[in-house]
Amino acid sequence: MVAFRLAVASAVLLAAGLIGVAPASATGTEGACPAGGGVTVVVDFGDLGPGSLVRCAAGTPANGIAALQEAGIDVAGSQKYGLAVACRINGKPGPDVESCAGMPSATAYWSYWHASAGGSWTSSHEGAQTAKPAPDGFEGWAFARPKSANDLPAPPRVPPVRQAGTAVPDVSKAGEIDFPWGFVIGVAVLLVLGAAGVFISSRRRRRREP
Q1: What start and end residues bound the annotated signal peptide (predicted)?
Q2: Quick one: pLDDT band at residue 149, thresholds 50, 70, 90?
Q3: How does residue 32 score in pLDDT terms, banded at 50, 70 and 90?
Q4: Beta-ladder partners of 140
């Protein structure tokens, strides 16, 4: 009876481990939104590397910052102004480039853009925390390194074009692998409990022997 209970417990724990392998659903989707599917967010990391990022924020985000977040892109503001100033996107630039204590440097900052599908990028005249993304439109971010504060930033190098059925990979998270810890732990518990059941059964048989 004890061995049976241990086997049942092992099966339950193993099932829990297998369930833990399933990845959590991520916010947003890779690639441009389909027509009528939401707001497409483009991030051009410039010389920060490794390339550009294109993701879809479904629905109608409340503002430019919300569009980033709902597309599954991390954004951090400055210590002084909060998210009124987008200082880091997916952790870039790092502290070696920008401290994010106050306003970013005039020669190293994130420029903010808008566009309609198939149109041209236009620099935003409003901050991302108050700007309302156009339905079915494109939101763009490009890391600017102008030679002087008087130079105008360049728009994202990815055009605001919707390509049906084509998803752009999230290059900012390349190389990350989710290790199936739940499965490993479940198997380990199964082995330990199975061995314990065999040991208990063996001891009981020895006690019954004359």
Answers
A1: 1-26
A2: confident
A3: very high
A4: 42, 113
pLDDT of residue 110: 98
Distance of alpha carbon 77 from its chain centroid, rounded?
17
Give the torsion sign (CA, 138, 144, 150, 151). Answer: negative
Q: How far apart are the C-alpha atoms of 132 and 60, rounded to whole Å?
A: 9
Predicted pLDDT at 199: 54
Say how far apart CA 198 and CA 8 lie, in whole Å. Answer: 14
pLDDT in tens, 169-203: 444 443 443 445 454 445 454 455 555 564 555 55
Q: pTM of the predicted model, to two decimals?
A: 0.66
For the beta carbon of residue 75, count every other beta carbon within 10 angstroms: 22
Res. 92: pLDDT tops 80: yes
pLDDT for res 88:
98
Q: Of how many residues is the chain composed?
A: 210
* Residue 188 main-chain phi, psi, to 5 deg: -60, -45
C-alpha 199, offset from chain centre: 47
Sign of CA dihedral 80, 86, 91, 94: negative
Residue 91 in contact with residue 146, Cβ under 8 Å? no
Q: What angle do CA 39, 172, 51 make, to 5 degrees?
A: 85
Where do the domains of the chain lie?
29-173
**C-beta neighbour count of 105 within 10 angstroms:** 13
DSSP-assigned letter for residue 104: P
Interior CA angle at 160 toward 146 and 42, to 5°? 60
